[in-house]
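A.,

Following up on our hallway conversation. C-alpha cells first:
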C-alpha cells in the first residue's frame, strides 16, 4: 500500500457540461466524491497520507465567478464536514500559500486543523493555492533568509510538505496526462496513474483497482 497517495481531482467542469449543468454543479459533485474517497481511505487504511489538489496557483486565471464559488464551496465543506473528520479519526492539513485567501476561509482552515489534530487514522492534506514552483521558491527564500545552505534535506524541510513523506502513488483523473505544477519535488519517484474518469464519476471501486495495480509495480529507485 502507498504510504502517501496524491490525487489531482480533475474533470468537474467537463462532467457538468456533458450533462447540460453548470460548472458549479460539477464542483459540488466533486466535493462529495472528495468526501467519499477520503472516508474510504480512512476506513480501509489504504494509505496514511492523502493529498488532494483542490486549487492551484494557476486556477486564479479562471473567471472570478468560478473562483468565488470555489472559495464558498470550500468554506462550506470545511464546516459541514467537520464531523466526518472527527468520526473517521482524520487529521486535516493543508499545503499551499494560504495568505491569498480571505480571513474567513483562513479561520475555518485553522479551526478544522485544530479540532482534528489528534486524528491518527489518516492525514488528509488539501493543496490550496498550491503550486510546486511557488512552494520551492518560498522554501528557497526561507533558507536564504536564515542563511541555511541549500541541501536536499534542508530544502525538503523548508517545503510545505516538510512533515509528510514523499509521494508513492499519484493519480490524475479527467483524462489529461500532465502534473499541472503539483508536488513536482515530492513525486520524484512516485508511480503515476492517469484515469479518463472525470472526478465526479470517480469511485472507491476504481481506487481499489488502481491500488491493486500499484501493488503490481516494481519500484527500483534507480537500483536493480
Ligand atoms: C478540477 O476540475 C477542479 C479544480 C481545478 C478546482 P476542473 O474545474 O478543472 O474541470 P475541467 O478540467 O474543466 O473539466
Ligand atoms: C489541476 O487541474 C488543478 C486542480 C485539480 C486543482 P486544472 O484543470 O487546473 O489543470 P490544467 O489547467 O488542465 O493543467
Ligand atoms: Mg481541469
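Then the amino acids I'd put at each of the 224 positions:
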Amino acid at each position: 500500500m502507498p504510504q502517501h497517495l496524491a490525487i489531482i481531482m480533475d474533470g468537474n467542469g467537463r462532467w457538468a457540461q456533458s450533462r447540460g449543468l453548470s460548472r458549479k454543479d460539477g464542483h459540488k459533485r466533486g466535493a462529495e466524491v472528495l468526501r467519499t474517497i477520503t472516508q474510504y481511505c480512512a476506513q480501509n487504511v489504504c494509505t496514511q497520507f492523502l493529498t488532494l489538489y483542490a486549487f492551484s496557483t494557476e486556477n486564479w486565471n479562471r473567471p472570478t465567478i468560478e473562483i468565488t464559488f470555489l472559495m464558498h464551496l470550500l468554506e462550506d465543506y470545511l464546516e459541514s464536514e467537520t464531523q466526518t473528520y472527527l468520526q473517521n479519526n482524520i487529521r486535516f492539513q493543508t499545503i499551499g500559500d494560504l495568505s491569498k485567501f480571505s480571513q474567513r476561509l483562513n479561520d475555518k482552515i485553522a479551526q478544522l486543523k485544530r479540532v482534528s489534530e489528534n486524528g491518527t487514522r489518516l492525514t488528509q492534506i488539501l493543496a490550496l493555492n498550491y503550486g510546486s514552483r511557488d512552494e520551492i521558491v518560498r522554501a528557497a527564500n526561507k533558507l536564504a533568509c536564515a542563511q541555511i545552505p541549500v541541501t536536499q534535506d534542508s530544502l525538503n524541510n523548508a517545503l510545505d510538505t516538510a512533515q509528510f513523506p514523499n509521494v508513492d502513488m499519484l493519480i490524475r483523473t479527467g483524462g489529461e496526462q500532465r502534473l499541472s505544477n503539483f508536488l513536482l519535488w515530492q513525486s520524484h519517484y512516485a508511480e503515476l496513474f492517469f484515469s479518463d474518469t472525470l472526478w465526479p464519476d470517480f469511485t472507491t471501486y476504481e481506487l481499489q483497482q488502481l491500488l491493486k495495480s500499484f501493488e503490481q509495480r516494481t519500484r527500483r529507485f534507480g537500483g536493480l
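The helical segments are 12-17, 23-43, 64-80, 82-87, 103-115, 132-145, 152-158, 204-216. Curious whether your intuition agrees with the design.

B.
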